[in-house]
Specification:
Layout (H helix, E strand, L loop, with lengths): L6 E3 L14 E3 L5 H4 L18 H11 L3 H12 L6 H13 L3 H14 L4 H13 L3 H10 L5 H17 L3 H14 L4 H13 L3 H14 L4 H13 L3 H14 L4 H13 L3 H12 L6 H13 L5 H14 L4 H13 L3 H14 L4 H13 L3 H13 L7 H15 L6
Antiparallel strand pairs: 1-2
Helix pairs in contact: 2-3, 4-5, 4-6, 5-6, 6-7, 6-8, 7-8, 8-9, 9-10, 10-11, 10-12, 11-12, 12-13, 12-14, 13-14, 14-15, 14-16, 15-16, 16-17, 16-18, 17-18, 18-19, 19-20, 20-21
Length: 417
């Protein structure tokens, strides 16, 4: 049975380096497909003669219709029955978990452990259900109790324990356990992905690049591992190596939107604006372009001193609509209005940007300059004072925005099966 090892533990820390509420997504194959590469086949038992049982059929129907309360009532009745097999209990637990009914899933997995304490999968799935309910310590306790009869099962527990510790802010412990899992099975894409992401979150970009490079060596067709390698190299300042990896990735998957986005940005940072605009234009003509690519293309066009203002404003409008709180979008829009000589609109754009992000140094600096230009001396002084109070960002807002976008993309990545 391909148990409920499908829950992906997404990124758990914000850009402000504080813990946020953990987000779990049920995505088929994300964790289990990777772990199953090294785990032995789970024990199989003859399924109980319940497939035609009216109670079980009613349970499945209630779950499919989203009737959570009815489904739980039926589960309670089913769990009163003696001698339920592990396959049956795991299947029921999975059905509840797939509907994000983690309490019911936990009940089924707990019963499985009680009747079949030798089944590793029941412990692992119960730990996942506890994690989905943010029961961190309970999850760790269950992983500790799990009967680990193989090296693969030991590594699977180490991996999941590292994810929980990361969510708790225990970075030392998380690094140790995630590293142990990856060192033991570097061919497992989930292990490489999560250790690499851990290092990116910790701003340890060279270490992240090392992990992604090794993981990609075992999974050369994995678009997300190659993207992780490209992102970490770019953030480490290895722009040309990042560009090289991105071109390789796009040669395999020409319409891969995250790669189009990062390649456009990397080329623009290197001053290769014509190349960047070409990649952006190709990306925008692909089936599912990233909304961030609309922003980047408009930005590159302005740097090229293009007078395609209609196109620039249209692209920025799409970006503003699709990207939450896109203060860099308003900064770029202001530059376009200023290039047209429309200082009133340029000021209005910057005022929106600074309301949206009051710690945006470049927006305050340009706003002070425009206020002075139109004779608003008092406003210019206030904007200048605000700018002086802010420390220069080590990473500009544009890089921060794109970094967050790539982290979200990688956090939700599905490793190859």
């Amino acid at each position: 049975m391909a148990g409920w090892m499908r829950v992906m533990l997404n990124g758990l820390r914000s850009e402000a380096h504080v813990l946020v509420v953990m987000l779990f997504t049920c995505v088929a194959g994300i964790v289990y497909a990777a772990i199953a590469q090294t785990l032995p086949p789970p024990q199989s038992e003859e399924a109980p003669q319940l497939s035609s049982d009216a109670l079980v059929e009613s349970l499945e129907k209630a779950l499919s219709e989203g009737k959570a309360e009815k489904a739980h009532d039926l589960l309670t009745q089913i769990l009163k029955r003696p001698h339920l097999t592990s396959d049956f209990l795991l299947r029921v637990g999975i059905q509840f978990a797939e509907q994000e009914l983690y309490g019911g899933a936990a009940e089924a997995f707990t019963r499985c452990i009680q009747e079949h304490p030798e089944i590793f999968e029941a412990y692992y799935n119960l730990a996942l259900a506890d994690i989905a309910q943010q029961k961190w310590e309970e999850a760790l306790a269950i992983l500790q109790q799990a009967p680990k009869q193989s090296r693969a099962e030991v590594l699977a527990c180490s991996y999941l324990r590292g994810k929980v510790e990361d969510s708790q802010g225990k970075t030392t412990e998380a690094e140790r356990d995630l590293s142990e899992a990856f060192a033991g099975a570097p061919e497992n894409p989930a292990y490489g992905m999560d250790l690499g992401l851990f290092y990116i979150h910790e701003h340890a970009y060279l270490q992240a690049a090392t992990v992604f490079e090794r993981a990609a060596g075992f999974n050369s067709r994995s678009s997300f591992l190659l993207l992780g390698l490209s992102v970490s190299r770019f953030l480490a300042g290895q722009h040309e190596l990042s560009i090289e990896a991105l071109r390789k990735l796009l040669s395999m998957q020409p319409d891969f939107a995250p790669a189009q986005l990062l390649l456009t940005f990397a080329l623009s940072v290197e001053g290769r604006l014509e190349d960047a605009e070409k990649v952006a234009r190709q990306g925008l003509n692909s089936p599912h372009p990233s909304p961030y690519l609309y922003y980047l293309d408009a930005s590159v066009l302005l740097k090229l001193q293009s007078r395609q203002y209609k196109r620039i404003f249209e692209e920025l409008s799409i970006a503003q609509r699709e990207i939450p709180s896109c203060s860099p979008c308003y900064l770029t829009k202001s530059k376009a209005h200023q290039a047209q000589g429309n200082f009133k609109a340029a000021i209005a754009d910057l005022e929106i940007a600074t309301r949206m992000d009051s710690s945006f140094p470049e927006a305050w600096y340009r706003l002070a300059s425009l206020y002075r230009r139109v004779g608003r001396s008092a406003d210019a002084s206030r904007a200048q004072d605000q700018f002086q109070k802010l420390k220069a960002d080590k990473e500009g807002r544009e890089i921060q925005m794109l970094r967050e976008n790539f982290l979200q993309t990688l956090d939700a990545a599905q490793p190859p099966q």
